[in-house]
Design brief:
heterodimer, A: 116 residues, mainly beta, seven-stranded mixed β-sheet, four-stranded antiparallel β-sheet, 0% helix, B: 113 residues, six-stranded mixed β-sheet, five-stranded antiparallel β-sheet, globular
């Protein structure tokens, strides 16, 4: 079982709804990530938090709003999404932001989002 | 041109076969390279790092050719449990890219009895 826990596992929402995805890790990792993955496509980086500060935003639309309340938690707030935003949203963590040294991201099982 | 390119496959091979996957990357300044494995409807997991000197882990061998900007993964004596999608991953150069890993499309392997 993965040590990165994501909730909910499945979410269906309308275009006018506001919802949040949650991610938690207790490995003491200091970097956390949100990736988006569509069917038969690779994971695409959305956001990187380094020591609880947003360090990378890959030009993600503002209808996605990340939040890192503490070093163990990462949220993704969703508002006014479009059907094309339907995807698997993967949270990941790494021991440090210098992930290029080890390449090791620990992924959660993902939250599968459907926007109607 | 995509930053990381892989042949999506699928590669269908019998048990015991040797299979090789290739990957090319566009940015010559890329710093680090990895192979991840993703099982169907599961999260990606790190398989191994890739070094210029080569890296071997049991039946798996990874190679990097910086001059050709090319990465490979060789799997010997394929097992049914090797069936998965193999993702080539590149870490771009630059302090502004700290924390950034770029995933290739993945190559799907199906090992058959």
């Amino acid at each position: 079982d993965t040590e990165v826990t994501q909730t909910p596992k499945h979410l269906v929402m309308g275009m006018t709804n506001k919802k949040s995805l949650k991610c938690e890790q207790h490995m003491g990792h200091r970097a956390m990530y949100w990736y988006k993955q569509k069917a038969k496509k690779p994971p695409e980086l959305m956001f990187v938090y380094s020591y609880e500060k947003l360090s990378i935003n890959e030009s993600v639309p503002s209808r996605f709003s990340p939040e890192c309340p503490n070093s163990s938690l990462l949220n993704l707030h969703l508002h006014a999404l479009q059907p094309e935003d339907s995807a698997l949203y993967l949270c990941a963590s790494s021991h440090s932001p210098r992930v290029r040294l080890t390449g090791e991201l620990f992924f959660g099982e993902g939250s599968r989002l459907t926007v109607l | 041109r995509k930053e990381v390119e892989q042949d999506p496959g699928p590669f269908n091979v019998p048990e015991g076969a040797t299979v090789a996957f290739n990957c090319t990357y566009s940015n010559s300044a890329s710093q680090s390279f990895f192979w991840y494995r993703q099982d169907c409807r599961k999260e990606p997991k790190l398989l191994m790092s890739v070094y210029s000197s080569g890296n071997e882990d049991g039946r798996f061998t990874a190679q990097l050719n910086r001059a050709s900007q090319y990465i490979s993964l060789l799997i010997r004596d394929s097992k049914l449990s090797d069936s998965a999608t193999y993702l080539c991953v590149v870490s771009p150069h630059g302090s502004g890219n700290t924390g950034k890993l770029i995933f290739g499309q993945g190559t799907t392997l199906q090992v058959k009895p």
